[in-house]
Design goal:
heterodimer; A: 72% helix; elongated; disordered N terminus; B: alpha/beta; six-stranded mixed beta sheet; 12 helices; AAA+_ATPase (chain B); nucleotide-binding (chain B); ABC_transporter-like_CS (chain B); ATP-binding (chain B)
């Protein structure tokens, strides 16, 4: 009726990129039109940052660096953890919006169109990672405003820190997308994704893992957040990274692969 | 010639089956829809209509199939089928968070139209479906009828040759329903094949070239509206009484009427024409019968199902149960 003949059939890859980009634009439009959800998710890390620094700061700082530390040392100590917590909390939005998509008729429309199958999920993942980066800039700005400074991090270390944040955001997003796919409705998705914001509380984000009860230390040390926090801390503040660097990368790659397999398996299942 | 036949068929299904666990939803149905025609799948809730649409539109797989849509094998080349079809499901498939126009542009993007072409097509369709004024408003604020129109407009962006409409008028008010009928008729004049499902005999009658009656996962009958109507028993006049004594005396006087002793009603077969009604009224007068309520009952879907399936659980008592 109105469309002209389609141009020469594009290759599979250019089709995939094009469709994913269209889906990404839709997600960014949602985020821009309804910023309140992203901002709500940002409240938790920012509140915790201010709470721990200004209310609990004097006591908390006494517990790090073998005494002698003051509040500004504690700001430096908790910012890396809060940046990673920001990732965990922002991706909850991805779980919710994936679940919203799956419960609406729109998903049936997408599935019956000749679009690249993975484009919907890829659009969500890339959109979520971009949202995470925007959130990190905001939380980072608050951190700098209350006195966070990195200690002589080189350009390469900054780059590595950025790479780690992106990798961690990717891993958390794929897990969140899987949670969104597995949930019957957006409320359930939001509940299911809660651990992503609770895990940092039992990591080395606020207090060193070796100050926790002995039986709990292995859990705190080897859960996904602690190695990433320790690595970021090392990159920005020059503390010892040790085996945490490798652990962080293994966690990121492993969670990305797991989340990807989980999400796509759920997506390719016949809908009821 | 089998080849030419299959070419002129937009939808060809043989032995379409689907079961969930031990519950058989579609029990081997055959469908043949010639290109450029409207085909209606008529049936009550739970008959398997939506499942048939879901399978034919590549949303879910069938258990055993020889299915071709737009000349493409559903199992072997679903993407080619998808490129040929447009689907408007039973549930609104619009993105409520963005505007009507943005929904249209999203479709244009997914159909790989250029930016200017996409804008042109979107504007044209919004205009055609009377949505230009609401184009800049979020789709979540649209009324049911507007959402359904946007839904169909989105389906048309890719210029599909075969369109599936799953209960396109369910939940619409009478005016929106007539608007929708007009839209569907317009589609057909453009040479598009339309496969629609409906619970309403009237709707199938209005729109479809051929109708298949689906009941309990099987095709109970198939044909043109005229052919199907021949299968339907005529209507009847129903007399309702409030006084049991009056009912009993009327029942004795009108021996030909079918009785329903519990409801105190009598049914007299009638085609609902003026002449027959007058004859019945004269007869009632001569017999001295005065009913509290007289209603003329024209054939409806219940009658079709009763006629086609002999389903005794239907609300109407068959004539043979006169006691």
């Amino acid at each position: 009726m109105n469309a002209p003949l389609a141009p020469a059939r594009p290759s599979r890859i250019s089709l995939a990129v094009r469709d994913s980009n269209t889906m990404l634009r839709r997600n960014l439009l949602h985020a821009r039109r309804y910023p309140s959800m992203t901002l709500n998710l940002l409240l938790t890390p920012i509140m915790l940052l201010l709470l721990f620094v200004y209310i609990f700061g004097d006591v908390m700082s006494a517990g790090i660096g073998g005494g002698g530390a003051d509040r500004s040392d504690y700001v430096a100590y908790i910012v890396p953890g809060l940046l990673l917590m920001t990732i965990g909390s922002t991706v909850i939005g991805a779980a919710i919006s994936v679940s919203m998509d799956m419960t609406e008729g729109l998903i049936a429309r997408f599935r019956t169109m000749a679009v690249y199958r993975g484009s919907l999920l890829i659009g969500h993942v890339v959109g979520s990672v971009l949202q995470v980066l925007a959130s990190l800039v905001l939380v980072g700005a608050v951190a700098v405003a209350i006195g966070f400074r990195s200690t002589d991090a080189t350009a390469l270390e900054w780059l590595a820190a950025f790479g780690l944040l992106v990798l961690f955001a990717l891993a958390m997003t794929w897990i969140a997308v899987g949670m969104g796919m597995a949930s019957p409705n957006p409320e359930a998705a939001s509940n299911m994704a809660m651990p992503l914001i609770l895990l940092p509380l039992i990591s080395s984000a606020f207090i060193p893992a070796d100050t926790m009860p002995g039986w709990f230390q292995p859990i705190a040390e080897y859960q996904p957040f602690t190695p990433a926090i320790e690595t970021l801390r090392g990159l920005l503040l020059g503390t010892e990274i040790g085996h945490n660097g490798w652990l962080a990368i293994v966690w990121c790659v492993g969670l990305t692969a797991l989340g990807y397999r989980w999400s796509t398996a759920l997506f390719n299942r016949d809908p009821r | 010639m089998t080849t030419t036949t299959s070419h002129s068929l937009a939808i060809a299904a043989k032995g379409l089956r689907k079961a969930y666990g031990d519950k058989t939803v579609l029990d081997g149905i055959d469908l043949a829809v010639p290109a450029g025609t409207v085909f209606a799948l008529l049936g009550p809730n739970g008959a398997g209509k939506t499942t048939a649409v879901k399978i034919l539109s590549t949303l879910i797989g069938a258990d055993a199939d020889d299915l071709h849509v737009g000349g493409h094998d559903l199992a072997a080349d679903p993407q080619a089928v998808r490129a040929a079809i447009g689907v408007t499901g039973q549930f609104s498939a619009v993105d409520g968070l963005i505007t009507g126009e943005e929904n249209m542009l999203l479709m244009a993007g997914l159909h790989h139209l250029s930016r200017s072409e996409g804008r042109r097509v979107a504007a044209e369709l919004l205009e055609r479906f009377d949505l230009t004024e609401a184009a800049k408003k979020p789709a979540s604020t649209y009324s049911g009828g507007m959402k359904r129109r946007l839904d169909i407009a989105m389906t048309l962006v890719g210029d599909p040759r075969i369109i599936f409409l799953d209960e396109p008028t369910t939940g619409l008010d009478p005016r929106s329903r007539h608007t929708m009928w007009g839209i569907i008729r317009e589609l057909v004049t453009g040479g598009v094949t339309v496969f629609l499902t409906t619970q309403y005999l009237e709707e199938a009658d209005e729109l479809a070239d051929r109708i298949a009656v689906l009941n309990d996962g099987r095709i109970a009958a198939e044909g043109t509206a005229k052919e199907l109507k021949r299968l339907i028993p005529g209507g009847h006049v129903r007399l309702r009484f409030t006084d049991p004594a009056a009912y009993r005396s009327a029942a004795t006087a009108l021996r030909e009427a079918a009785r329903d002793d519990d409801a105190l009603t009598l049914q007299i077969p009638s085609d609902g024409s003026q002449r027959e009604l007058r004859a019945i009224l004269d007869w009632l007068d001569t017999a001295g019968v005065t009913a509290d309520e007289l209603t003329v009952h024209t054939p409806d879907l219940d009658d079709v199902f009763f006629a086609l399936t002999g389903d005794t659980t239907a609300t109407h008592q068959p004539e043979e149960t006169v006691r």
